[in-house]
């Protein structure tokens, strides 16, 4: 993945977690931990390109895709912006995210 794709993935995972917290409880506590581990590993990779990704299971990936479909369907915007993403990335991609 290139830097842009990694940042998109981090943003996607954040929105999925926020949707689960604010709207429809979809993920178990263990699944939320796995999602956060993947997010923080991608952040680590942005700083250290030699680090290895920490992929999640196919079942959990499918749940995330289902949640992202709901995010799109309901035009969900999280109450809080992702504190780990730079402002420039957010403003550049606020309209095109997850399409």
What does this structure look like?
α1 runs antiparallel to α2 and α1 crosses α3. The chain is mainly α. It has four helices and no strands. Helices cover 63% and strands 0% of the residues. The model is unreliable at 88-92 (pLDDT under 50). It is globular and about 35 Å long. It has helices at residues 3-22, 29-47, 58-73, 87-93.
Q: What's the quick description here?
A:
By secondary structure, the chain is mainly α. The chain has helices at 3-22, 29-47, 58-73, 87-93. The chain has 4 helices and no strands.
One letter per element, helices H and strands E, the order comes to HHHH
Arithmetic mean of pLDDT: 85
The SS-based structural class is mainly alpha
The percentage of residues in β strands lies in: under 5%
The global form is globular
Distance between termini? 18 Å
Number of helices: 4
Give the C-alpha Rg.
13 Å
The major pleated sheet works out as: none
Q: What's the β-strand tally?
A: 0
Low-pLDDT windows of residues: 88-92
Helix share, percent = 55-70%
Keywords:
globular, mainly alpha, 4 helices, 99 residues, single chain
């Amino acid at each position: 993945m290139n830097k842009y794709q990694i940042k998109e993935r981090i943003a996607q995972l954040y929105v999925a977690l926020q949707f689960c917290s604010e709207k429809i409880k979809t993920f178990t506590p263990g699944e939320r931990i796995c999602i956060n581990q993947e997010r923080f590993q991608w952040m680590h990779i942005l700083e250290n390109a030699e680090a290895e990704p920490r992929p999640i299971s196919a079942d959990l990936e499918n749940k995330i895709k289902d949640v992202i479909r709901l995010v799109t369907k309901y035009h969900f915007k999280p109450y809080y912006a992702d504190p780990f993403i730079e402002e420039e990335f957010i403003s550049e991609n606020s309209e095109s995210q997850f399409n």
